[in-house]
């Protein structure tokens, strides 16, 4: 008889080996990637079976095996993290990493946003950028979500009210981490001026600008920089990262706009290794070419049109969703009434 506290007899090592390989006997893709690989390494070092680990987490062994093979797990609770830490005898740094993986990407939706299922999908996308740092911010650069790599490289994103522009322009950490900080300060000021030109009545944007201009260095950049810039998409630059023992690395910034949250920016920072030097970056382009890029009034007008189109599309999507929900709740007596009701929604 098998009780809940017992596992059927068998060769645990053989079962784990089978679970880690496909039918062809080849190593499964993604096996050594992400959170699952970390769990597997900790578990192997502690000499604990997959079965015991699954029980500590309150899940089936099958589910746990999929996580080790690369499936994205649900957020582990603090209680689960503590149980796992005890079972696998994790040290202080390992416990910290475990918590980062499970609190690092909780999506905070901007006010007024809907579609929670799309927000969860977006959070999954952010997680899947590992090992590249990734984050989501709103139109005022307030951090809404981030993955573990982002939290490990730049812990400031975990602070209440974290804001990219405020951190980049006003903190000593940013000045130490950005190489040629003055060029980056000019780039962010250009972005603020572009936002100001496209959203002149935005009170929160105005408060952010006044806030960063309290710093005398930023005020000087604001008064001497007369150009504008829309985003930092495609910028290749050097940074000194504390988590990497202050190693100077080269990164590229990718900026995208999610269709379900069109006012937000989804940003991925990719660490690239190449043959860059003072003249050429790691992608072969002119070093810091982005520092001389500018936007003009035509770019402002185009951005305003795009924003209006995104808002209209978002409103249409909301109306279709609300109409579908309403229609699903309606009960009519005859087929003719149903057809008439359908034509109303079609015309709308």
UniProtKB/TrEMBL annotation:
Domain HTH cro/C1-type span(s) in chain numbering: 39-95
Name of the protein: HTH cro/C1-type domain-containing protein
Annotated spans, Disordered: 1-23
Pfam families: HTH_31 (PF13560), MLTR_LBD (PF17765)
Domain of life: Bacteria
Organism: Streptomyces thermocarboxydovorans
PROSITE patterns on file: HTH_CROC1
Matching Gene3D superfamilies: 3.30.450.180, lambda repressor-like DNA-binding domains
């Amino acid at each position: 008889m098998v009780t809940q506290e017992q596992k059927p007899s068998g060769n645990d090592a053989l079962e784990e080996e089978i679970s880690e390989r496909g039918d062809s006997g080849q190593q499964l893709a993604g096996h050594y990637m992400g959170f699952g690989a970390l769990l597997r390494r900790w578990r192997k070092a502690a000499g604990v079976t997959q079965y015991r680990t699954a029980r500590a987490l309150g899940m089936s062994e099958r589910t746990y095996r999929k996580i080790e093979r690369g499936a994205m797990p649900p957020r582990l609770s603090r209680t689960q993290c503590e149980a796992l830490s005890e079972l696998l005898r994790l040290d202080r740094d390992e416990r910290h990493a475990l918590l980062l993986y499970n609190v690092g990407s909780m999506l905070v939706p901007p006010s007024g946003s809907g579609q929670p299922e799309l927000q969860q999908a977006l959070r999954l996308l952010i997680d899947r950028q590992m090992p590249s740092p990734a984050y989501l911010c709103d139109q005022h650069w307030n951090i809404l979500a981030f993955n573990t790599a982002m939290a490990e490289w730049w812990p400031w994103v975990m602070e209440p009210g974290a804001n990219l522009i405020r951190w980049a322009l006003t903190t000593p950490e940013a000045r130490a981490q950005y190489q040629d900080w003055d060029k980056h300060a000019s780039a962010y000021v250009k972005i603020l001026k572009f936002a100001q030109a496209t959203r002149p009545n935005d009170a929160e944007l105005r408060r952010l600008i006044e806030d960063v201009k309290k710093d005398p260095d930023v005020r000087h950049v604001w008064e001497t920089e007369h150009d504008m810039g829309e985003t930092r998409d495609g910028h290749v630059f050097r940074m000194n990262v504390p988590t990497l023992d202050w190693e100077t690395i080269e990164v590229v910034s990718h900026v995208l706009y999610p269709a379900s949250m069109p006012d937000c920016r989804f940003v991925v920072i990719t660490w690239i290794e190449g043959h860059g030097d003072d003249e050429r970056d790691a992608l072969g382009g002119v070093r810091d070419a982005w520092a001389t890029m500018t936007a003009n009034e035509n770019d402002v007008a185009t951005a305003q049109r795009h924003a209006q189109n995104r808002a209209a599309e978002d409103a249409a999507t909301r109306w279709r969703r609300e109409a579908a929900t309403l229609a699903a709740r309606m009960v009519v007596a005859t087929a003719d009434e149903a057809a008439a009701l359908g034509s109303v929604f079609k015309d709308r």
